[in-house]
Design goal:
This protein has 22 helices and 25 strands. A hairpin with a 2-residue loop joins strand 1 and strand 2. It is α+β, with helices and mostly antiparallel strands and 721 residues long.
């Protein structure tokens, strides 16, 4: 083109890049807006403010995220331009912008430009004097729950919950004038004193939902401000916030709930509210403790139908229809136990539901030294009658297997007399740790901690004595330390063959303590908090999963013995290298090093007695076996072999479906819970330990110089000049 004979210069066209898409998010709602560099920060701010319908007095903050930085401030024009730079560097086509409501401004109007130019005094203050950056809480979105007429709620319960949370977040209180399933009318609690006109009306529709039909969301009363405490912040509100945490961790303590609620929601709640909210969540998940007993009849039928060979005995008081006690052992566990070690740990532990009671358990031991749950009984207390009931049904399971079972117990209340009635003549070992705890209790107020610890140590030596001579020697030292007037009466009540290794003639597989039973009690510690039906069902699931996992794990083993016993064999074989072996007669050898030992490999015995006690070759026996050019695996107990371990977990516990519980005849049976008087005070979830079970660390007193549990301040020892 030309004008007046001169060519007309055309400016080059400016090609704008593709717009960046921003996804603006507030309170779970979002909308998308295209951004380009022709826009300003003020344009974006005003668009967000208008779209989410903020009040003129509200103050909001914008943040965006890019890879490597989860929260970048978007407060000024410079920040807005840096957003484009970050998107270009990371090749982003879409960026999320979080909208945070951080409070109300001092005036009714807010200017973006003037606020962005205000100097922040925190930039010139020391770290200790700066105001911390505002933290986002999960409760920030509560203030958006009630905002316009026509808002929809799925039922009156949802509206009540969101209205309470809205009032807590905004900082006011309300009262219901009408609170029905189909109509709700709420007004500000200051309507009488200050004439506040805030009110809300909601009505239900044909679809069952509630809609806000009238809303005046402006308060004319004073003191509408969000505080750290609020009267409406009761267990009803708190339980909706902690439901996921409690379902994941049922052992969550009220003080932990208080701390977590403060850091997550920004509010303070009382211990009572936290405890009540936890109990409400627990009941919502697992049902009430009282109703749980009515499900036991159905559960019994379901177990016996889905798991053939199981034993489930449920006793109910016929006169009152109240639960009395039950016994349960699953068919897979019964079948597999005959391939486990012929030992059973029997123990009782307390339930932790509101009806408390006792859980009696019989736990076996597999060839890899793990525990094997066999049977449990739920009753009101550890009495001779309940132990007899438990042992009778346990005996009916064990007799068909034809094995002599060695029992290990802590001599609990009623256990000894019931055992002698049902299992007369069966080997019965006493846990030496419980015995030493009982012995230590005899010295309460009669000796210092150092002396008690020495008595315990010497009692251990007596219990672990391998020969009668060693027993008499260690007993003499124990009597000298602890005093014959206490030691002799204590030991006279306990037959020595039940606790000392030197006098037990059977195979005890090295067992001295009831640790396996304690492991099982700890294993079900969470389930003990649940109602009885849930406790049984969740324990069954645990056993079912344990059997499946151990069965699959054993398929990958390639050794002759289970892993732990194979490792033990390697250690013992290494120790056997230092011995010299001398042949005497067929199967009999003298094994020498610093001392000499007589080994009879045909009888699986050694004069050190460890082979007989542990049912596993000692280093002396292994040395003799190798000298005889025999295979060491032929002299190891069969229960330590991998093939026996596989057989013990070859019978699974079958799953149970409960879809037909409500339509089943037994599912509608009503059973009353047992009578249980709740003791005063907060329920305990941990048992009291006896004086002998608590291990106190010994320290050296700087005043008297002696070892003990006292210090300079509490020292009462006489000082010798």
């Amino acid at each position: 083109m030309e004008r007046d004979g001169a060519p007309l210069s055309v400016p080059p066209l400016r090609i704008l890049p593709d717009p960046l898409v921003a996804r603006c998010i507030y309170s779970g709602k979002c909308y998308m807006i295209p951004l380009n560099q022709c826009m300003s920060f003020s344009d974006l701010y005003e668009d967000v403010f208008r779209t989410f319908q903020f009040l003129p007095s509200d103050v909001i903050e914008l943040q965006y995220s890019v890879p490597g930085c989860e929260a970048c401030f978007l407060r000024s024009e410079r920040d807005f331009q840096m957003l484009f730079c970050g998107a270009r560097i990371h090749k982003l086509e879409c960026v999320d912008i979080s909208v945070l409501k951080i409070g109300g401004s001092c005036s009714n109007t807010s200017s973006v430009d003037s606020r962005s130019e205000v100097v922040d005094e925190d930039d010139y203050l020391g770290e200790a004097f700066r105001i911390e950056v505002h933290k986002s809480y999960l409760s920030d979105e509560w203030s958006s729950y009630i905002h316009h007429v026509g808002e929809k709620f799925h039922g009156a319960a949802e509206l009540r919950e969101k209205l309470r949370k809205y009032a807590i977040a905004v900082g006011f209180e309300f009262v219901f004038l009408r609170n029905d399933l189909d109509r709700i009318h709420a007004i500000c609690s200051n309507v009488g004193t200050e004439g506040c006109d805030w009110h809300l009306r909601a009505h239900s529709s044909a679809n069952g939902c509630l809609y806000i039909t009238e809303l005046n969301n402006i308060h004319t009363c004073k003191g509408v401000v969000r505080t750290q405490k609020h009267k409406l912040l009761e267990s009803k509100v708190v339980k909706t916030c902690i439901a996921a945490d409690v379902s994941y961790n049922l052992t969550l303590k009220p003080r932990e709930i208080m701390s977590k609620f403060k850091s997550t929601y920004g509010f303070d709640i009382s211990y009572k509210v936290a405890l009540k909210a936890k109990q409400s969540v627990k009941e919502a998940i697992y049902g009430s403790d009282a109703d749980s007993f009515s499900k036991l009849s159905w559960y019994k039928e379901a177990v016996l139908e889905s798991n053939p060979g199981s034993s489930f005995v449920l006793e109910v008081d016929p006169s009152t229809n109240r639960f009395h006690r039950l016994f349960v052992a699953y068919g897979g566990c019964i079948e597999g136990f005959q391939f486990c070690l012929p030992v059973l740990y029997v123990d009782g532990t307390f339930g932790k539901s509101i009806y408390k009671g006792q859980i009696l358990a019989a736990t076996g031991r597999n060839g890899n030294q793990g525990f094997y749950p066999l049977a449990i009984c739920i009753c009101d207390s550890e009495t001779e009658t309940n132990w007899t009931f438990f042992f009778n049904h346990l005996k009916s399971l064990l007799e068909p297997q034809g094995r002599v079972i060695t029992f290990i117990s802590d001599r609990g209340t009623g256990l000894l007399s019931a055992f002698d009635k049902v299992f007369a003549g069966h080997p019965h070992l006493f846990c030496y740790k419980h015995l030493v705890a009982n012995l230590a209790g005899k010295y309460r107020g009669k000796g210092n901690s150092v002396m008690i610890e020495e008595v315990k140590r010497k009692f251990f030596k007596v219990a672990y004595s391998s020969t009668e001579k060693e027993y008499r020697f260690n007993l003499r030292l124990l009597r000298q330390e602890g005093g014959a007037e206490i030691i002799d009466p204590f030991l006279a009540e306990i037959p020595v063959e039940h606790w000392c290794r030197a006098f037990y003639t059977g195979g005890r597989y090295g067992i001295m303590a009831n640790g396996i039973a304690e492991s099982f009690n700890s294993w079900i510690s969470l389930e003990r908090l649940m109602p009885v039906y849930c406790m049984l069902d969740q324990t069954r699931i645990k056993q079912m999963e344990q059997i499946g996992k151990r069965r699959d794990e054993a398929q990958r083993w390639t050794t002759e013995l289970t892993p732990k016993m194979e490792e033990r064999l390697k250690v013992q074989m290494e120790k056997s290298r230092r011995f010299s072996v001398h042949y005497s007669s067929p199967g009999v050898y003298e094994v020498r090093s610093e001392f000499s030992y007589v080994v009879n490999i045909s009888e699986h015995s050694c004069s050190c007695v460890k082979w007989q006690i542990n049912c596993f070759p000692c280093p002396h026996g292994l040395a003799a076996i190798q000298a005889a050019s025999e295979n060491v695996y032929d002299y190891i107990d069969k229960y330590f072999r991998v093939d026996m371990f596989k057989k013990s977990y070859s019978s699974p516990i079958r799953p149970i479906t409960n879809v037909d519980m409500s339509s089943s005849e037994s599912g509608t049976d009503f059973m009353l819970p047992p009578l249980a008087k709740r003791p005063p005070g907060r329920p305990r979830v941990k048992r009291f330990k006896s004086i002998g079970e608590t291990e106190k660390k010994l320290i050296r007193c700087s005043r008297c110089g002696k070892m003990g549990t006292h210090n300079k301040k509490s020292c009462t020892e006489p000082l010798v000049q």
